[in-house]
Specification:
By secondary structure, this protein is α/β, with parallel strands linked by helices. It has a single domain (5-332), classed as NAD(P)-binding Rossmann-like Domain (Rossmann fold, 3-Layer(aba) Sandwich). It has twelve helices and 13 strands. The longest helix has 26 residues, at 100-125. It is globular.
């Protein structure tokens, strides 16, 4: 390991070599493009089942399925061969999917596979110097006894009956165990609801003419534009810091105001009715979220983002009103990126 470390550090002066999973996902695809344009990055290694359609100047494709047998050996070989210095794990679903068993395989088993490969590199080759993992503030859970602002030390209580959230919590636990075993600097970015693409959970929830809501509840909502999330991930790639960071845009708004600003109607009903309706639509294959999502329409889960600002220097370009305006413009087909 000691023989390989100096070589990795010398390469850092010419630009980092970054490997990324989930290059077809919402944040992963945009982060891939950002890294391909980044002068501080010399090469981007794509760990995915399929190569992206867009042309890349610095991309090196490695065809690998994170859920396949011996995938860890394939990844470990690629990390060593390409002298990868930073690994970004973005292979997570942006919204709930009906194939929850396949989702579990990708997000939990796939995370375990990737971490085994990185741990092998740390033990034997020693090129990898940092890991960045994308997470979610939904992992905290939306509960009546939540504090006004959830810090990164708050317990993760969101996945009791919601596989979409439970898998993200399980993946974070795999990452925590990996940190303890290897001492590799690892940044976990817990992002709030993301807008800027219609395929995200918030993007899908805010498209229908009537948005579900719980009668008598109006939780505060945080949003982050996907480009801001990508900015945070890029900062984490270059910082190489160890820690967990909440990521959100500036400001919070009541859910009722969010719904009004995107030009939709609030469909409020008793909690039991909302849960039953969402679950019935989900089982029928036409719903956006399962019944378990009702807790996030009932209670607040606002995250404290000061650590990301203080340690990573993250400053979002989109406040919550700007992110919502972008969502509306995108829905109408005339969205423009921030300057």
């Amino acid at each position: 390991m000691s023989a390989e470390r100096p070589r990795g550090r010398n390469r850092a002066t010419r630009g980092r070599v970054v490997a990324i999973t989930g290059v077809h996902g919402v944040p992963g695809a945009r982060l891939l493009r950002r890294l391909d344009e980044d002068e501080q990055v010399s090469r981007v290694v794509l760990l995915d089942r399929y190569a992206p359609a867009l042309p890349l100047r610095k991309g090196v494709g490695v065809v690998v399925d994170l859920t396949a047998t011996f995938a860890d050996a394939t990844i470990a070989e690629a990390l060593a061969r390409e002298h990868v210095q930073v690994v970004v794990h973005a292979a997570f679903h942006a919204a709930p999917v009906h194939g929850f068993e396949a989702a579990h395989e990708l997000e939990v088993i796939g995370t375990r596979t990737l971490l085994r490969a990185v741990a092998d590199n740390v033990r034997h080759t020693g090129t990898v110097e940092a890991l960045v993992v994308l997470g979610s503030t939904m992992s905290y859970g939306a509960l009546p006894d939540n504090p006004q602002y959830l810090t990164e030390e708050a317990p993760l209580r969101g996945g009791a009956d919601y596989p979409f959230v439970a898998d993200k919590i399980a993946a974070e636990r795999e990452v925590a165990a990996f940190r303890r075993r290897t001492n590799l600097p690892t940044s976990v970015l817990r992002a709030c609801w993301t807008v800027g693409e219609l395929e995200t959970l918030a993007g899908r929830l805010l498209v229908p003419a009537i948005v579900p809501a719980v009668l008598g509840a109006d939780p505060l909502v945080q949003l982050v534009h996907v480009d801001d999330l990508v900015d945070a991930a890029r900062l984490a790639v270059h910082a190489g810091r160890d820690g967990t960071y909440n990521v959100a845009g500036d400001g919070v708004l009541p859910l009722s105001t969010v719904i009004k600003l995107v030009g939709r109607l609030r469909g409020a009903a008793p909690e039991s009715a909302v849960r039953a309706t969402l679950q019935a639509l989900w089982i029928a294959g036409v719903g956006t979220v399962p019944g378990a999502h009702t807790m996030y329409l009932r209670d607040t889960f606002v995250a404290d983002t000061s650590r990301a600002a203080d340690v990573l220097g993250f400053r979002p370009r989109y406040a919550i009103q700007d992110a919502l305006a972008y969502h509306v413009a995108m829905r109408r087909g005339n969205a423009r990126p921030a300057a």
